[in-house]
Design a protein that fits this description.
Blueprint lengths: L1 H10 L14 H9 L18 E7 L3 H9 L3 E6 L2 E7 H9 L4 E6 H8 L13 H14 L4 E8 L5 E7 L13 E6 L7 H15 L4 H9 L1 E5 L4 H8 L54 H11 L4 E9 L3 E4 L11 H18 L2 E4 L10 H9 L2 E7 L14 H18 L10
Parallel strand pairs: 7-8, 7-9, 9-12, 10-11
Antiparallel strand pairs: 1-3, 1-4, 2-3, 5-6, 6-8, 10-12
Helix pairs in contact: 6-7, 7-13, 11-13
Length: about 425
C-alpha cells in the first residue's frame, strides 16, 4: 500500500493548495506528504580502499643500520649518502619511529607516484603484459623451430602459466640436456616491468643473430632457458585499470586478507632471517614458509630437474648493480676460488653495463633470495642484476624509451656470462 500512497502524492494536489504557490523543495514536499519511508534509500558508494604505503627517506649510513631498517618491513629501493629511500606501510613507519630511526621525508605513495612517473600504461605499449609476453615467446618458437621451444615451468597462484623459452640446437622442450645450462629470469617483483623486457630482448637477439659466428657458437654449445615473467599475477595486477599500483608481491590472499608474498624472500636459504618481514602488510613479507609459493616452488623444481645449469641471472630494478651472494648474511662466500670467480664475473658484467659490482649484503642483509639459494643448494653461479635507473628517473616506471638502451648493455653482459657457463670458475683461475 505504501507504493500506492506515494503514487497519489505524486499526481494529486493537496487540499487547500489550488492556485497557491508551494516554495518547498519538491523532494521535501514529497517526503512530508508521502512519508519519508516511502522513498527508496540511496545506498552510499562503498569506501575505496586506502593505500597505507608511503615513500619515505630514512637516515642510515651503514649496512648494519640499513639491515635494521629492512627488518622492520621497509622495502629499500634507493641508497644514498647517509640515507635510504623506499616503500613502507604506515605500521612499518611506526616501527621505525619506535626504534629511533629519523624519517626525513614521507609522501603518500600515490602522490609520489604522480611526481615520479614518466609514462602511463596506455603509452607504455612497448612493455609486455602477460598476454603479449606469451605471444612474443610463442612467435620466437614458431619462427625458429630448429632452435627455440616453449613450455611452462608451472602455474602461478592464480593459475597463469610461467613460460620458459629454451634455446638449444639439439634437445628441445622438456628433454634432458647435457650442454652447460644458463637461466635468465625476470619479474620476481611485479612492478619491475623492465626486468621482463631485458630477458625478452635477449631471446630476440639470440634468435635474430643465430647465424653470426659468436652467437652460433654459444647456441650450439649451451642450453639456454629464458623465463621473463616469474610473477605473472602480480605483473598483471600492477597494470590493471590503466594505472600502476606499485605492487611488488605475488597475489596470494593471506588469512588476514592482505595480498601477496615477496617471492625474493621466499627461498630456503636463511629463510626468515634479516631483511625479510613476517608482517603480511609489508612489501617484503616472506610468506608462511620457505617455498610456500607456487612460483618459487616451480623455479625450484625446474632447477632441480636440470643439473646441467651452471649460471643464473635474476633481473630486477632498479639501482644499476651486479650483485652476488651472499645477500642473507654479511659473511663472504667461504670457498675462496668461487669467491674469486664471482668477483671476476660480476666485474666483467659491470664493465659491459656500466653498473657497479658488489656482494649483495653490502647494501643490507636480506635473507631468502633466489641467488643465495641457487648457489647454496645447487652450486649455480647466480647473480642479481638491478637494472636502470641508478635512482629517480622514473624508478620502477622509467618509460618505454629506456628499454632499448638498457637491453643493449645487458645483452652484452648475458653473452659474457654464457661464455663462462661451461666452467664459471675459469673466470678467475
Amino acid at each position: 500500500m505504501r507504493g500506492f500512497v506515494f503514487f497519489l502524492a505524486l499526481v494529486s494536489v493537496p487540499a487547500g493548495a489550488a492556485g497557491s504557490r508551494d516554495d518547498r523543495p519538491a523532494l521535501t514536499r514529497l517526503q512530508e506528504e508521502a512519508g519519508a519511508e516511502a522513498l527508496p534509500a540511496v545506498p552510499s558508494p562503498p569506501a575505496r580502499p586506502t593505500d597505507q604505503r608511503f615513500w619515505i627517506t630514512v637516515r642510515a649510513s651503514t649496512a648494519r643500520q640499513r639491515t635494521a631498517i629492512a627488518e622492520t618491513g621497509m622495502s629499500i629501493e634507493e641508497i644514498k649518502a647517509g640515507e635510504v629511500a623506499g616503500v613502507a606501510h604506515s605500521k612499518t613507519i611506526a616501527k621505525l619511529k619506535e626504534r629511533g630511526f629519523q624519517i626525513d621525508d614521507q609522501v603518500a605513495l600515490e602522490a609520489f607516484h604522480q611526481q615520479l612517473i614518466k609514462d602511463f600504461p596506455p603509452q607504455d605499449r612497448a612493455y609486455h603484459d602477460y598476454a603479449r609476453t606469451q605471444d612474443a615467446l610463442q612467435a620466437l618458437a614458431d619462427a625458429h623451430p630448429e632452435l627455440a621451444s616453449l613450455f611452462s615451468i608451472g602455474q602461478s597462484w592464480q593459475g597463469r602459466d610461467m613460460w620458459c623459452l629454451r634455446l638449444n640446437t639439439t634437445p628441445a622442450g622438456l628433454a634432458p640436456g647435457t650442454k652447460p645450462g644458463a637461466v635468465f629470469v625476470g619479474n620476481h617483483h611485479a612492478r619491475e616491468h623492465l626486468s621482463v623486457e631485458v630477458p625478452l630482448k635477449l631471446a630476440e637477439y639470440l634468435a635474430a643473430n643465430k647465424n653470426r659466428a659468436a652467437v652460433k657458437k654459444l647456441l650450439e654449445s649451451r642450453d639456454i632457458y629464458i623465463i621473463p615473467m616469474l610473477n605473472p599475477d602480480g605483473a598483471e595486477f600492477d597494470v590493471a585499470g590503466e594505472e600502476y599500483k606499485w605492487h611488488r608481491k605475488n597475489m596470494r590472499v593471506n588469512p588476514d586478507k592482505e595480498i601477496g608474498v615477496d617471492l625474493n624472500r621466499n627461498y630456503d636459504f636463511l629463510f626468515g632471517g634479516a631483511g625479510s618481514s613476517g608482517d603480511t602488510y609489508s612489501d617484503t613479507y616472506r610468506g608462511p614458509g620457505a617455498f610456500s609459493e607456487p612460483e618459487t616452488r616451480a623455479l625450484k623444481a625446474f632447477l632441480e630437474a636440470r643439473p646441467n645449469v651452471q649460471v643464473l641471472n635474476s633481473y630486477h630494478s632498479y639501482s644499476e648493480l651486479i650483485l652476488y651472494p651472499w645477500g642473507g648474511k654479511s659473511d663472504p662466500i667461504a670457498d675462496a676460488r668461487d669467491l674469486r670467480a664471482y668477483k671476476a664475473l660480476a666485474a666483467g658484467m659491470a664493465k659491459l653495463t656500466g653498473y657497479r659490482a658488489m656482494q649483495s649484503s653490502e647494501l643490507y642483509v636480506a635473507a631468502g633470495d633466489c641467488a643465495d639459494w641457487t648457489y647454496a643448494a645447487r652450486k649455480i653461479f647466480s647473480f642479481t642484476t638491478e637494472l636502470y635507473p641508478r635512482s629517480g628517473n622514473g624508478g620502477f616506471y622509467p618509460g618505454s624509451a629506456a628499454i632499448a638502451k638498457v637491453a643493449a648493455g645487458n645483452i652484452k653482459a648475458a653473452l659474457y656470462l654464457l661464455e663462462y657457463a661451461d666452467d664459471p670458475r675459469r673466470a678467475a683461475p
